[in-house]
Amino acid sequence: MSPRNVGEIEGADGTGQIGSVECGDILKVWIRVSNEHLADIKYKVMGCPAAVAVCSMMSELAIGMHMDQACELTDEQIADALGGLPENKLHCSNLAATALHEAILDYVLNGAKREVSATVVVDDTASGHLASEHGLSLWIENGERRLLLDTGQSHIIQENCQALGLDLREVNAVVLSHGHYDHTGGLQTVLDSASEVDVYLHPKSVEPKFACHDNQPCRNIGMPSPMTENLQKHNHIRNLVWTEKPTDIYPGFTVTGAIPRHTDFEDTGGPFFLDTDRKQPDTLIDDQALFFESDKGLVVMIGCAHAGIVNTLDYIAELTGKKHIHAVLGGLHLSSASNERIERTINTFHGYDVRQIGLAHCTGSRAVAKFKKVFGDKCFSCSVGTRMTFKES
Length: 393
Ligand SMILES: [Zn+2]
Ligand SMILES: [Zn+2]
Description:
Elements: E1 14-19, E2 26-34, E3 37-46, H1 49-62, H2 67-71, H3 75-81, H4 96-114, E4 115-122, E5 137-142, E6 145-149, H5 156-163, E7 173-175, H6 181-184, H7 187-193, E8 197-201, E9 210-211, E10 219-220, H8 225-230, E11 237-242, E12 247-250, E13 253-255, E14 272-273, E15 290-294, E16 297-302, H9 309-320, E17 325-330, H10 339-351, E18 356-359, H11 365-375, E19 379-381, E20 387-391
Parallel strand pairs: 6-7, 7-8, 8-11, 16-17, 17-18, 18-19
Antiparallel strand pairs: 1-2, 2-3, 4-5, 4-20, 5-6, 9-10, 9-14, 12-13, 13-15, 15-16
Helix pairs in contact: 1-3
The structure holds zinc ion (2 copies).
């Protein structure tokens, strides 16, 4: 008369269905998994009172169980917990444990694949035994796919990956957000480990790049030249993909290519030039972002956002036709930005209803403080080791 835990779980981690219309009993089970335990179970059942009672008892017994333990829960144990079932109900109405096992199997086979995680492996800040340097690299994992957005500037990526239990040999693809050394300098280290890598970059990212501050000599801040000379013939690069236009890395994961600039309040964020005579400003046309669709909306990952984060988000919204961006992760390069620019950027984040803002690398402490004040818990600073998880849509 009062079955417990009836219902469905939206976006469940696993589902199992069992029974047939002919035999009269059908039941479907939804599970939510947290830390390898069954955090929640819901079910719907069409059948006799025994079938309903069995589902209710299954859910009562299994919620909170470790998945391994739940796999050993039997139909007999459920019947016993109910104080026994009529002999003629034991066979066809007692199916709840089997349906639960199906749901766990579904989670094991498919649930892990549906998760997308992004871990910061290089950043300007790190704690404990992890190393920091000026630069950025995000390790993105989606089932068997392991993808890096940028590589930091040195071998530190190797040390941090090792400390975080991530194996560089398993990397399948590297996306370079732009040509600056603090995003591309670690590529050599990655290619020394991983042997079959697809590399995605804009053709202009391999051009010489300089930072020329007033009254100071120009500093070479481009991709280290041994790498630029070696890119075309590197035997660990499986495909070298030039991304002038939006390019799918695999279905659902896209790199923007060059980002159109339409705002009048954003610039590249520094005195960047293509030559040491300071004659040709570097517009960082090679700057690009990576995005995918999660079950909660678009997730956008950027290196430094030299194209301007507002230009970047507007372009991705235009490409996808989506008005909601769930998460933005990476460096926003706002340390020398005007207050007006920071405020207009914040307004844009409001406009896209961004729920997770992971600020890293070159965002600048003033901008971080303003974002945190406005967005509260939605906004957090990323350092090496910060890990975020999403579900594919
Ligand atoms: Zn840069
Ligand atoms: Zn940078």
